[in-house]
Amino acid sequence: MTANLDPVHLTQNLIRCNSVTPAEGGALALLDEVLSEAGFTCVRVDRGGVANLFARWGDKGHARSFGFNGHTDVVPPGDDAAWTHGPFSGDLVDGVLWGRGATDMKSGVAAFAAAAVDFVRNTPPEGAIILAITGDEEGDAVDGTTALLDWMSNNGEAMSVCLVGEPTCPDEMGEMMKIGRRGSMSAWFTVTGKQGHSAYPHRAVNPLPAMARLMDRLASHKLDDGSEHFDASSLAIVGIDTGNPATNVIPAHCTGTVNIRFNDLHSGASLSKWMEEEADMVAADFGVGIDMRVKISGESFLTPPGPLSDLVAGAVEGETGRRPVLSTSGGTSDARFVKHHCPVVEFGLVGHFMHQVDERVPADQITQLKTIYGRILRDYFA
Ligand SMILES: N[C@@H](CCC[C@H](NC(=O)CCC(=O)O)C(=O)O)C(=O)O
Ligand SMILES: [Zn+2]
Ligand SMILES: [Zn+2]
């Protein structure tokens, strides 16, 4: 009889792989080994310098196929010296596991891998289990989950439903799951005036007042009050820069960057149009040129409450005693790609320390997450 797979130990070993985006760092190789050993068919789906791992247990193309999606890449640790335990130490101290990825989301990947391995070993289901694990969620994400989904469609692989294991609970285990996400986009503005001496401003065209006006107009505009399933949209100014070190020079150029999180009352295209109109108006008022470049990372999306959210919420409630709130709050996730493929929801552990120095997680939360994922599999294949 093979022992059950310990998700805490697996998380520890994953944390010890330095896999800051887009480095693979040995994390996917480790999962490949663990899953292959348990009878999963594993294929590395690398693209554009990004490593990804596809793993399936059961028949290809089975009509009943449960998918998990997650990532092993992590954001940079920042100042190593500021960490109580090294960011890649995987130290387990007094029941707490430390390191980059402890919450976001090597623990989630370890929990679903361990749950899937135990499940197929102990109660082989009538159906298939697919793990789609990417090495680039935190970066551009162009060759990450999208590459896996492209490869799957080209190779007759399919998930009937998918659970993304990102951390979804704000403070307490079990309190929240995600059934969609707001959209995300960024816009970069360059205001061009005319360089000059700051003591002779009439001979220059200063781009900064125009930038200040534009940023203020964009940031002070109320986009909406939220909608049935979504929080209000928000626009944040995330950068204003001239690159000008001199105090007696009016620079010719100024750049400004905004990031928008938007709900289903908007689209990337409608917001681009609005910002373009604002920029044109300010440019005319101030006699400057304004260029705008936009990147739409994802539109808003929703998997309406139904069988999949009921299945996950029921298992979470059964294991934690809490019925998770169905939310679309926070940032975006790779579910924005998966939703083109099959119904998708997200559930994971408490994300309090994600992207912070001293990222850490109580080890028993990882074990509990594995139990919840195991129960979801049991209920799905029942
Ligand atoms: N860099 C990518 C995707 C960025 C995804 C990132 N997601 C989170 O931080 C998740 C946090 C949460 O669960 O609330 C984000 O929203 O910026 C891209 O923009 O293409
Ligand atoms: Zn994540
Ligand atoms: Zn993250």
Helices and strands in order, then pairings?
Layout lengths: L6 H9 L11 H11 L3 E4 L7 E6 L7 E7 L20 E2 L2 E3 L7 H17 L5 E7 L10 H10 L6 E4 L11 E3 L1 E2 L1 E10 L3 E2 L9 H14 L13 E8 L7 E2 L2 E10 L5 H19 L2 E10 L2 E2 L4 H14 L4 E3 L7 H4 L5 E3 L13 E3 H19 L1
Parallel strand pairs: 3-6, 3-7, 7-18, 8-17
Antiparallel strand pairs: 1-2, 2-6, 4-5, 5-19, 9-16, 10-14, 10-15, 11-13, 12-14
Helix pairs in contact: 1-3, 3-9, 5-6, 7-9
The site of one zinc ion has 5 residues, from loops.
Model description:
The chain starts with 6 loop residues before the first helix and ends with a helix. The chain has a 6-stranded mixed sheet with strand order 1-2-6-3-7-18, with helices on both faces. It is 31% helix and 24% strand. The chain folds into 2 domains: 7-181 and 301-381, Aminopeptidase; 183-298, 2-Layer Sandwich (Alpha-Beta Plaits), CATH 3.30.70. It is elongated. Strand 4 and strand 5 form a beta hairpin. Helix 1 runs antiparallel to helix 3, helix 3 crosses helix 9 and helix 7 (307-320) crosses helix 9 (363-381). It is α+β, with helices and mostly antiparallel strands. It has 9 helices and 19 strands. The structure holds the ligand N[C@@H](CCC[C@H](NC(=O)CCC(=O)O)C(=O)O)C(=O)O and zinc ion (ZN) (2 copies). Residues 75, 104, 138, 354-355 line the site of one zinc ion.
